[in-house]
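Please review this pair:
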Amino acid sequence: MSNVEFIYLKRRIINGGTMVLSGLATIFGLFFLTWILWTTLSKGIDAIGPHLFTQMTPPPGEVSGGMLNALVGSFMMCLLAVLLAAPIGIAAGTYLAEYVNYHWLGDTIRFVNDILLSAPSIVLGLFVFTILVQPTGGFSGYAGAIALGFIVLPVVVRTTDEMIRLVPTQMREAALSLGIPQWKVNTQILYRAALPGILTGILLALARISGETAPLLFTALNNQYWNTDMAKPMASVPVVIFQFAMSPFEYWNKLAWAGALIVTLFVLFISIFARVVLARKNKYG
């Protein structure tokens, strides 16, 4: 066997071994993912029904009730978090991509944003608890939304920054050569080209905060009753799941599994929708 043939055979063996290990790792991950999804589906499907969306969370010992107040609370806080953080994140991402892209300040901001992106959510919850809940003397839906907004913000900043930098430079140069001001270039050209990617980042951030529990325990806490006043403690699906799953009441446990199934399906739907949006952008440019 010549030296060239030996090197070729060695590479084929290494490549084959790598492919086998990669396949086994994929099967390992898919096995546990399927197991988790099947367990959530099998245990949560029994409690799914109209009552889940029309009745309040039940008191201890009751065998009837739903999660209407928790669903509404989660919807209001997640919506407000996105409305607060998304515009700031888009503006910050635009500033990074267009004004300080090759400057030390841009690198510093990206570094800080990456730290915030990887920060544990419970730390963000404690931060909001310290600066907002303690001074005001009470838990509130607004505090919960702000805590969730801190989770949304770095995701939107990173996505906007990367998507705008992917826009071809020729588009900027052509617009600027016609005398179009920079703010019009940003809003009418760059945002249009990067919109699917930015929207994908917002949707993925929404999917992430929909299942966050720790920040809400320190900010919005919980509320067993119907409440749409965000200045007061507010129920949310993740916190209700946490409370009901640890309880000794069988019906509460069923509702916890039902809530977990709803969150799982919501995250799955948002993730698929985000990928469809991004795929359309890649297809049509």
